[in-house]
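Field guide to reading this record: the first block holds the primary sequence, the second block holds the structure written as discrete tokens, and the final block holds curator observations. Each block starts with its own label. This record concerns 6,7-dimethyl-8-ribityllumazine synthase, catalogued under organism Celeribacter arenosi.

BLOCK 1 — SEQUENCE
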Amino acid sequence: MAASETHHVLDLPVFDKPVKILIVVAPYYKDIADQLVAGAKATVEAVGGSWDLIEVPGALEVPSAIAIAERMSNFDGYVALGCVIRGETTHYDTVCNDSSRALTLLGLQGACIGNGILTVENKAQAEVRAEAKGQNKGGGAAAAALHLVALSRKWANPSKGVGFHSDAIKLAGEAKGPTTA
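BLOCK 2 — STRUCTURE
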């Protein structure tokens, strides 16, 4: 069981300018979603960031909402949250695969996304993973987004018309300070 394994978790990055994160949640299983959101909010706030929260009908709509926000707003990063529990049909596979694939494609286009959409066999597994004081997968997804935001800020290239470069951003595991890419 994964809960009994020890995993290495990176320290949260440190930012010199505030971070603005959009949390997109599909609250189909409301109690699970609430725990995921609580973990994500706490993690964003731990780095001095701000967050906005929107709800969408289901996990398949999460990537679309992020794509719209990436195109039309000014968020630094995104946290995708929700829960898909295996049922009796292949719909589970479609929702899991397509939502994950869409989030990955958005990330490959430069969006800083932490994927916290749980894909589980039953509600008990979801509860263990979602609990903010337990496995805290919502907080983990927010941390992933924050790490990607830190990288995007570190590597921003004004000559390409993208972002800014700051030597004051400290990435997790960066012992000697920033280096140029």
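BLOCK 3 — OBSERVATIONS
The longest strand covers residues 77-85.
The longest helix spans residues 91-108.
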